[in-house]
Write a structure and sequence with these properties.
alpha/beta; 6-stranded parallel β-sheet; 6-stranded antiparallel beta barrel; 10 helices
């Protein structure tokens, strides 16, 4: 997959089938739309393209209400490559861009690629005051030489799959529901940094992960995860919270990797959240904490073994 930043003129001259959006999370709804783009491009002998924005438009349009992102641009690029997209265009979202009308923006897009078909979601709109809905984009397309097509919403259990629904599930600690909507486990990644090393003293050394600021995380609690580091994957028990037993105040993401003893400070570790075991608790002393962690690890091993057998 080719990745281009901005809208140079031209990127290439290949006929293009494209979709446009923030695509935060790249959930099942996004995947349906993008999968359609890839299929259409292959059928027509065109390149498939996704145009996305960085930062998320909400961070500029309504910064006071901006939500944590479910995926960084780098994480989105990984999923898009797996979906078979040929070209990823990452456009910086600025106040200047926000002020463009739909015709101006689509003119810039068509200067960059030979757009033949534009596929959009059921509720999509772009441009100043969201004037560029499906009808208006179709009018612009008649002038600029592309057609507009929409896909219907994707639902799961009667609920529309959306980034906001996934955030709500994460805030409730329901990582299993988030995974159902994403079509894969929700994940975070970050450098392994030094912590207070207290886990070593109680027999459960943890990797303290510096998650990128502004990235969503599940609510405080204990989770069963897969941890990937150094190209290998391990089962893990992950604690998110302030460690109230030790009167902590700083929120951390710490993972105890099962059957793993290597030093990995400075390496990037990815956590995929599979299931919540319990909420965050304050224990009456270290022995009570150790006993609960022992139970957490045993439960995690059983759940991972069951998952691996299915």
């Amino acid at each position: 997959m080719n990745i281009v930043h901005g809208l140079p003129r031209p990127i290439n001259e290949q006929p293009t089938v494209m979709t446009i959006g923030a695509f935060d999370g790249l959930h099942r709804g996004h995947q349906h739309l993008i999968g359609t783009v890839v299929e259409r491009a292959r059928a027509l002998g065109c390149q498939s393209a996704v145009l996305t924005f960085d930062p998320h438009p909400d961070a500029i349009i309504r910064p006071e209400r901006a939500q944590p992102v479910l995926t960084t641009v780098e994480e989105r690029a990984e999923v898009l490559a797996e979906l078979g997209v040929d070209l990823l265009i990452v456009v910086p979202f600025t106040r200047q861009l926000m002020s463009l009308g739909a015709r101006e923006f689509m003119g810039e897009v068509c200067d960059a690629v030979a757009l033949r078909e534009l596929w959009i979601g059921w509720d999509f709109a772009l441009g100043r005051k969201r004037e560029g809905d499906a009808r208006r984009l179709g009018e612009i397309g008649q002038e600029l030489g592309y057609s507009v097509h929409t896909v219907e919403r994707v639902t799961l259990g009667g609920e529309t799959v959306s980034s906001s629904s996934i955030r709500a599930a994460l805030e409730a600690g329901d990582v299993a529901k988030a995974a159902s909507m994403l079509g894969r486990p929700f994940s975070v990644r970050g450098e392994v940094v030094a912590g207070d090393r207290r886990g070593r003293t109680i027999g459960f050394p943890t990797a303290n992960i510096a998650v990128e600021p502004g990235h969503a995380t599940p609510s405080n609690g204990v989770y069963v995860c897969y941890a990937t580091v150094g190209g290998a994957r391990y089962g893990a028990v992950t604690n998110i919270g302030v460690r109230p037993t030790f009167d902590g105040t700083k929120r951390t993401v710490e993972a105890y990797l099962l059957d793993f003893t290597d030093e990995i400070y400075g390496e990037v570790l990815k956590l995929e959240f599979l299931q919540r075991l319990r909420g965050e608790q304050k224990f009456d002393g270290i022995s009570a904490l150790v006993a609960q962690i022992t139970r957490d690890v045993a439960e995690a091993r059983a759940l991972l073994a069951q998952r691996d057998d299915t």
